[in-house]
Structure formats: structure tokens, C-alpha cells
Amino acid sequence: MKVHPEDFNLIKDNLEIETVIGEYLDLRPTGITKTALCPFHTEKTPSFKVWPSTQTFKCMGCGEQGDVINFVTKKENFKTPSEAAKFLADKFDIPIRIMGEEEVQNYEEQEVILANEFALKFFKEKFFGTYEPRKYMVDRGYTKTLVSKWEIGYAPMDYTLDYSRETLEKADLISAKGYPKFRDRIIFPIRDITGRLVGFGGRRLSKNSKYPKYVNTAETPAYKKREVLYGLSQNLKLIKKERDNDDKKYAMIVEGYTDVNLLEKADIRFAIASCGTSFTDEQAKAISRHVDYCFLFMDTDRAGEEAKSKIIKKLWQFDADVKPIKAEHGQDPASLAIKHGPDLYSFVETQCPMQLVYDGAEGNREKKTEECLKAIASTPNHLRRDDLLRLLEKCSKYSFKNLLGRLNKYTTRLVFK
Length: 417
Known about the structure:
The protein is of the alpha+beta class. It is built from 17 helices and 17 strands. The protein has helices at 6-13, 17-22, 68-75, 81-91, 101-128, 131-139, 144-149, 165-170, 232-241, 257-262, 281-288, 302-317, 333-340, 353-360, 365-378, 382-396, 400-407; strands at 2-3, 28-30, 33-36, 48-51, 56-59, 65-66, 98-99, 153-155, 185-191, 197-204, 214-216, 229-230, 250-254, 271-274, 293-296, 321-326, 349-350. The strands form four sheets. The chain has a six-stranded mixed sheet with strand order 12-14-13-15-16-17. Strands 2-3-4-5-6 form a five-stranded antiparallel sheet, with helices on one face.
């Protein structure tokens, strides 16, 4: 149950705070205020004050403060202000609107998005007004055009956003204690496929390793990280437009925000990335709706190779082909894009996706083969299954006939975690 937020003001406008609080406390006039013993902590000298002119209260002893709804929420031990608002509306016969579950969800999504837009404006102003983050991004290879397109911002170490605290907390911009989530960080706005600003990624600016290198917005009413791909909103038009020589559409999956941004230096404007999470079914489904295949350009460390194998299996499951890219050892896509620019393709080569899945599986030849067969069985495209079996024949050294017979065991679609 949630009272429509606009009706909170209706309730407060129709009530006198001193009348409501006077039913709980013995209020005594003291100049422009009314005073009583605080109900929220033990005291002998009254320090609880009510200001009728502003319809607010504050205890000078314990610091508890707010309006009439805040007071009733605390005094009646209600879990939410909405419960207190409903209690007051019923008691004083004030007509209010109760929002349904779907209406609440839509309202809270919009609340978070508006808070994010407010925060982004602040972050962008701080970026252009602060030397260190601008120098850092220039040193990383960013141009004014890239900074502008990707709406890069900066969150200082200490700051306060002049916005509803409740909404900022709901948007994961501050903690429950009111501390900023992003501090001394380069800010990467995250937009969903429709362009709504649903969250942020923050990259540590200082070299102090006691802080995490990256901090990302947690789940909020607007941000479902399993469903969002960074860069898809900005690059979708080009992804839909791009075609190879066989008239097939494609995209490129990379690991991080800077990879997506800086690959534009190599004229690659069709890159996307998962937002600080493992590649999910929802993300695979989202991109497979728009392309025939994906290039897979990950870091060349062990974690990158493991990620490739998992993503390949996910994409097969949603009927998208994969072309993994092998780069110089220790080089990430962003560094290679800066180093080689448009000539990047001359310094990388594609890998066999089945070989990556086979090599990434645990166990002996038999177990590796079984793992690959499960992956092949997950794809709904029978023609692709045949192509993948041919690749597995080369990797496993089992005959096509042998593999085809074993594949028939897997008749259900499997989901890979």
C-alpha cells in the first residue's frame, strides 16, 4: 500500500501540526514555538519544539525532526510514511489516493530516473570544473567528442545533492546514513535501451587501493542490471544499420565502459558491455534480437578467457553466432584502440568459438566433449547445431556421427549460469 506522493501535501495542508502532536504530548507555548518533553528519548527538561508557522518539529536533545507525517510514523511505529499518511487521512476524513502495485512501480522508476538526471547534471558540471578528472581522461585517450557523447562526469570526494534524501537513497546515490555512493570517481552514466538514465558506473580516480576500482549502482526501481547493456542505447542505430559482406548484422561485446568508449578511436561504434555483472540470459536475449552474430573482444587474461566461454554459450542459446577476437597478450580493447586506431583489425584475429568452449571446460576429453554437446543442444537453430558439431569434431577428434548420436540425449533446452 502506498499513498500517492502528491497527497502527502494534501494531508499536511489540512492539518495543524500542533493539534496532531498535542494529542500525544503536553505542549506548552514558548514564544513562537510550543515545547514538550521529547517522546523519542528520556529527558527531564523539555527540548522538543514545534513550529506552527512552518508546520515542523525538532528535538534539540536527540535531533529527531520533520513534519506531522514524520512524527506520526515514528510515534506509532509505522514501517513507512505511507502508513502514517493513511492513518491520518482516515482519522481526519481527508480523501486520498491509494496507488496500485504497477502504479507504484512506474512512479518510483520515474522518481529514480529524475534523481539520476539531476545527479548527472551535477557530475558533469564538476567534471568540467575540476582539473584532475579532465587530465585523467585526456591521458586515457578521451577527446571532447567522446566525453560529450558518453556524458562523462565526476563525483568529488565530499558533496551534497540538493534533492529529496528518500529519493536519492532509493536511486542508490546515497547510503542509508546519507553518505554519497560515488566519491572521487569518474562517472559513466548507464542508459537502458530506451535511453532512460537508470544508473551509474564510477571509476576510482585516486590511486588509493583501499577503495574498490569500480563502484556501480545497485538494483533500484529503475535499474535492473541483468537487463541492461552499456552502450546499446547510444550505439543501437548503428548496430541496426551495419552489415557485413553477407548482409548480416553484428555487434561487439567488450568488458568495460572505457572499452566501449575508446573503441570509437578504431572506428568501432557498435560495441556494448555488461555493467559490472556476469553476462546474463536477459542481456544475451536483448542483443540477439538485433544482430546475427557478435564479435567478442575481452581482456586476454584468464578471467577474460573464462568470460568468453560463458558468453559464447549464452549467445548460442539465443541463436546468435559468435566470433571471438584474439589480441596481443595483456592488452585490453581500449589500449589497442588507442595504440592502433582504425588499423586495429590488422593486429587481431578471430578464434574458433568451439575451441574456446572446449578448452574452457573442465575434465578430460570425454567431459569436455559432453560440456560442448550441452552447449550445442541449447541452440534452437538446427543448422547452427550441425555447424557447431563440425567444429566440435575438429576439437574433440570424435567423429561427426558419434557426436550426433550423443547429441540426441539432450532434448531439453539447457540454461548456463
